[in-house]
Design brief:
The structure is a single chain. The chain is mostly helical and 375 residues long. The protein has one domain. 73% of the residues lie in helices and 0% in strands. The chain is built from 21 helices and no strands. Helix 4 runs antiparallel to helix 12 and helix 15 packs antiparallel against helix 16. It is globular and about 80 Å long.
Length: 375
């Protein structure tokens, strides 16, 4: 066979390469750069970025039926397995003691979900069907597994932009939230010191908490049961104190493997044909708006609680009412310390942050229930 006959075969990848493929490969490189150079959620953005690059190389067969990415998608996202496994690991890492010691922080976790429903209304006004609008609104919780779970149930065709938006904004929490905090609070409010003298939380209470939450949420919002039960299972492994091997596996091997495969599968959905359209741009903008609204609602409710308690609540902890655990809680505490180095509100912020984790799961379940009932 002559070289002239071999040349088309050797260059078929290049001949099928499009401008859209190039744009998406650049997008994947940007995600990898954010992970490596800025260390923005590298565990998430690195595999997503790499999956995006590989998926946009023509004729690999990896995204086609039976290909590696197709198998990963069907095995872990199409049946919601990866988000649920990740939630077991997240639950094993969460200490709910600050929330149990300060139950009123649950109000901030609820306030931090306002943007989900506000964005849902706006998305419907922009012409998105109710199922797609609900999936877009959940981005505001900044909870990747919940966003993927809800999107896969309600609008699987929008999974790629929703997942990328949720995880990207999660990585940008330290950039997006501080300006909103400073805009909506005064310096005096940010300097409010909060006493931390919580009532002791018994081991019995910590063990019973995941069981009670699972039963309560499961009976009230059955659609949220898969997410909340896996989160609480992980927490039960932690608090029981009798299954350290399982707890450590959930915190490390299980969540790491699930996150790796989920990131690759999500990145592989970022193909030029599915991703480069006006809907994607609208989803990214609406997701950012949902995030901003959630943060603002938490801060405003924090200011209300500060007034109600005579200045004993620092409104900054309201910004931790989104999910994004534990980054949002640590950030709220850091902003307070930037104003007053001796101001320690970390435990209060973590109470609001863990409440936000529960709130995002429940909000996702409520949306699933409402949309399913309406449609």
């Amino acid at each position: 066979m002559e070289f002239s006959e071999l040349w088309p075969e050797l260059t078929k990848g290049l001949s099928n390469f499009t401008l859209g493929n190039g744009v998406m490969i650049v997008a994947g490189l940007v995600l990898i750069a954010l992970a490596v150079l800025k260390q923005y959620e590298p565990v998430l953005l690195l595999p997503i970025g790499f999956g995006c690059i590989v998926a946009n190389i023509p004729l690999t067969g990896m995204t086609e039926d039976g290909g590696l990415f197709d198998v990963l998608y069907n095995a872990g996202i199409g049946n919601e397995l990866f988000p649920l496994l990740i939630f077991i690991g997240v639950g094993a890492m969460i200490d709910f003691s600050p929330l149990l010691a300060m139950p009123r922080m649950v109000l901030l976790g609820a306030a931090g979900q306002f943007g989900i429903f506000g964005t849902l209304i706006l998305a419907t006004l922009l012409g998105f069907p109710l199922n797609e609008a609900a999936s877009i609104g959940v981005i505001g919780a900044i909870d990747g597994p919940t966003s993927i779970y809800v999107a896969q149930k309600l609008a699987p065709e929008l999974l790629a932009p929703i997942a990328v938006a949720a995880y990207s904004y999660m990585s940008l929490v330290p950039i997006i939230q501080p300006p909103i905090m400073r805009l909506l609070t005064t310096r005096e409010e940010r300097r409010i010191r909060m006493e931390y003298a919580p009532r002791p939380v018994s081991r019995r209470a910590r063990v019973l908490f995941p069981v009670v939450v699972t039963l309560t949420v499961g009976l009230l919002v059955p659609e949220a049961t898969p997410l909340i039960s896996m989160l609480m299972l992980g927490n039960l492994l932690r608090e029981s104190g009798v299954v350290d091997r399982l707890r450590l596996a959930a915190e490390n091997e299980i969540i790491n493997v699930a996150t790796l495969f989920l990131g690759l599968a999500v990145g592989a959905t970022m193909t030029a044909g599915d991703f480069l359209n006006l809907d994607t741009v609208q989803i990214l903008i609406l997701g950012l708006l949902a995030f901003v609204l959630d943060t603002a609602a938490g801060l405003v409710f924090g200011k209300f609680m500060a007034r109600l308690t005579g200045g004993r609540i620092n409104p900054l902890i309201g910004a931790a009412g989104i999910s994004a655990f534990p980054m949002a809680g640590r950030l709220a505490a850091q902003v307070a310390q930037d104003e007053d180095f001796e101001n320690f509100i970390l435990m209060h912020a973590m109470g609001a942050n863990t409440a936000g984790q529960l709130g995002s799961v429940m909000a996702g379940g409520v949306l699933l229930a409402l949309v399913t009932a309406i449609l």
